[in-house]
Design brief:
Elements: H1 18-36, H2 43-50, H3 54-58, H4 64-89, H5 93-110, H6 113-118, H7 121-124, H8 128-154, H9 164-173, H10 176-184, H11 191-206, H12 212-228
Helix pairs in contact: 1-2, 1-4, 4-5, 4-8, 5-8, 5-11, 8-9
Length: 230
């Protein structure tokens, strides 16, 4: 029987593809940061979380800094992956934005380590390249959101007197303050309700007003949905 070099014993996880293992390590690191903050992150702790020996982690990452960079890449991939997913789910730009917002909040709620890393000055201390990296990650996310907004404007669903980029930043603003409060309260702040209510305000601000017939149909649909929920 082939011996798994990454494992401590035959009962530990099997050897994985390098990319999958690195993502597993990054996810374990993110989980540890969510539980113990950045100061609680260590190579030994990551190894214990996955069920490996520390030397197995060093085969993929030379040090803790490299793991943190991998965590930031993981966050970027999840954010941009959410954009791709909502665009596959629906063709309606406003619906895409709403779904993206809810996915963004779910990502934060399910990964307490995200705000702890993104908002930590310790992550960026003497790391100007890393700060630039995170900035580029946010810019890439805003670019994708701006594309959705532009499509909504082209279809006459969203107001055209404001550039897509500005509306994209406003959209991100629905998340960031709520995420900070959620982080500072150790999860006690009701981020879900806050974002749901903020979305309603944002949609009213950016959507092209419906004609009376459309408005009546939407009210009818909302009443029907509320009635079915009782």
């Amino acid at each position: 029987m082939k011996v798994n070099q990454d494992s401590q014993s035959a009962g530990t996880p099997q050897k994985l593809d390098t990319r999958i293992r690195q993502e597993q390590i990054a996810q374990a690191a993110l989980k540890l940061v969510g539980r113990d903050a950045l100061k609680g992150l260590s190579i030994a702790g990551i190894a214990r979380e996955i069920g490996l020996v520390p030397s197995a982690i060093y085969r993929h990452f030379p040090n803790k800094d490299a793991v943190i960079d991998a965590v930031l890449d993981l966050i970027r991939d999840r954010l941009l992956g959410n954009v791709r997913q909502v665009r596959r789910e629906t063709d309606d730009p406003l619906e895409q934005l709403e779904r993206l917002l809810m996915r963004h909040i779910a990502l934060i709620r399910e990964n307490a380590g995200i705000p702890r890393i993104v908002f930590s000055e310790d992550v960026y201390a003497d790391q100007s390249e890393r700060r630039q990296r995170v900035y580029q990650m946010v810019q890439a996310y805003l670019d994708r959101v701006g594309e959705i907004v532009a499509q909504g404007q082209e279809r006459g669903q969203m107001r055209t007197d404001t550039a897509p980029r500005f509306l994209a930043v406003m959209f991100l603003g629905l998340v960031q303050p709520a995420a900070i409060l959620y982080h500072m309260s150790d999860g006690d702040f009701d981020v879900q309700t806050q974002v749901e209510q903020s979305w309603k305000v944002f949609r009213r601000a950016v959507a092209v007003p419906m004609n009376p017939r459309q408005a009546g149909a939407e009210r009818e649909q909302n009443s029907s949905l509320e009635g079915s929920g009782n």
